[in-house]
Amino acid sequence: MTIHSKIPGIGLGTYMMSPEEAEEMTYEAIKIGYRHIDTAEVYRNEQGVAKGIERSLSEGLVTRSDLFITTKVFPGNEMWGQSQKTFDDVMESLDNSLKRLKLEYVDLYLIHSAHADKTRIEQWKALLELKSNDKIVYAGVANWNIKHLQEINDADLPLPDTNQIELHPWAQQPELVKYLQDNNVHIIAYSSLVPLSTWRKKDGENSLKTQDMENEGSSEESLFKILANKYNVKESQILLQWALQLKYAILPKTIKISRLHENFHFSFVIEEEDMLLIENENKGGGITWEWGDPLLVE
Ligand SMILES: NC(=O)c1ccc[n+]([C@@H]2O[C@H](COP(=O)([O-])OP(=O)(O)OC[C@H]3O[C@@H](n4cnc5c(N)ncnc54)[C@H](OP(=O)(O)O)[C@@H]3O)[C@@H](O)[C@H]2O)c1
User: Fold this and answer.
1) How far apart are CA 64 and CA 166, in angstroms?
2) Which one of the listed residues 15, 27, 34, 43 is annotated catalytic?
3) What's the rounded Cα separation, in Å, for the pair 298 and 295?
4) Rounded to an integer, what distance in angstroms lies between the CA atom of residue 251 and that of residue 193?
5) What local confidence, expressed as pLDDT, does residue 210 receive?
6) CA of 92 to the centre of ligand 1 (A)
7) What are the domain boundaries of the chain?
8) What is the pLDDT of residues 48-60, one digit of tens each?
9) Is 43 a catalytic residue?
10) pTM of the predicted model, to two decimals?
11) To test the ligand 1 pocket, which listed residue (194, 198, 239) has its Cβ within 8 A of the most ligand atoms?
């Protein structure tokens, strides 16, 4: 079955959740109806996600096959003093993630970024091997640009099932989106809620969001506030529905149960003329990585 028909439209993001928050939110989200949980080795909360899954399974809320669990291998970034992971390192990372998650397989395994310029293809070959061994169902990447994906093509290897990228009205990446769609690579949009004034407000939740962007997000004139009034929904729901209408899978993250509901339960359609207004909001590159946009990596 292709990933397009298998991946749920709305999943739970867990970046910046502690293990305890990840346990609670995974459990509560599954209770509400979420089936996709997105974590990563560098989030350091896979054990928490595991506990949330275990509780849901033991209470009979779901079975393992109802769930779609994503985790990621960090490729290694020499600029940060890390060595670039080899084929064997990637195999070991997956085994360690499976141990922490207490799972036999993950539904989706991603190479978290394209920072390993010397071993990118070797890492991709490791994911293909894991897929053929049934340790992962789908193999993908995150934050890879067209040039990185071309390298896979040039090596005569199959393209990823998915590319998880920063995608919201302020960072629409039209060229990359077209490339992915033309090549049948499913798109998972992350950080859908960037334009909200409530996005990443806690100390230490750094990003490249500028003061101008903060001001724009809290302005009463903000297009998303205007549309929220028009459709009688939350501003967050305008951002999420925009992505769903473009057929992107989404991963809204929250540590509040009321927002878990809000981010999952909505049903309306944004009219074409309003989709066009949102299209005009594009500002260009990504802003969620405080160290710089990973799509710009060489
Ligand atoms: N592959 C990558 O490199 C990458 C990078 C970034 C993210 N991701 C994935 O994508 C997920 C989502 O991205 P994200 O965590 O950057 O941000 P997000 O989901 O776009 O937004 C989360 C922020 O918005 C707030 N929020 C959530 N729901 C809200 C609502 N209904 N109303 C108002 N505010 C709301 C949250 O605060 P509270 O928690 O306090 O509610 C939090 O500050 C991540 O968790 C991660 O799984 C992947």
Assistant:
1) 28
2) 43
3) 9
4) 10
5) 92
6) 28
7) 3-296
8) 999 999 999 999 9
9) yes
10) 0.98
11) 198
The whole-angstrom separation of Cα 141 and Cα 139 is: 7
- Run of H or E including 100: helix 87-101
Is residue 258 within 8 Å of residue 18, measured between CB atoms?
Answer: no
**Does the 3-296 domain belong in CATH 3.20.20.100?**
yes
pLDDT given at position 46: 98
> What whole-number distance in Å separates Cα of residue 175 and Cα of residue 166?
13
> Would you say the CB of residue 259 lies under 6 angstroms from ligand 1?
yes
Closest ligand 1 atom number to CA of residue 168: 20
Q: Ligand 1: which of 187, 237, 253, 291 to mutate, judged by most atoms within 8 Å of the beta carbon?
A: 253
With a cut of 70, which residues of the chain have pLDDT below it?
none
Coil/strand/helix, residue 219: coil
Pocket of ligand 1, candidates 190, 240, 263: which has the most ligand atoms within 8 Å of its Cβ, to mutate? Answer: 190
Q: What share of the chain is helix, strand, coil (3-state, %, to 5)?
A: 45, 15, 45
**Is the distance from the beta carbon of residue 70 to the nearest atom of ligand 1 less than 6 Å?**
no
* pLDDT the model gives residue 295: 97
Count CB atoms within 10 A of the CB of residue 18: 14
Ligand 1 midpoint to CA 287 (Å)? 13
pLDDT for res 258: 98
> Is the CB of 235 inside a 6 Å radius of any atom of ligand 1?
no
Please give the pLDDT value at position 146: 98
**pLDDT tens digit string along 99-146?**
999 999 999 999 999 999 999 999 999 999 999 999 999 999 999 999
Q: What is the pLDDT of residues 62-74, one digit of tens each?
A: 999 999 999 999 9
- State how far the Cα of 230 lies from the Cα of 127, in Å rounded to an integer: 45
User: CB under 8 Å to 22, separation ≥6 — which residues?
Assistant: 14, 39, 43, 45, 48, 49, 52
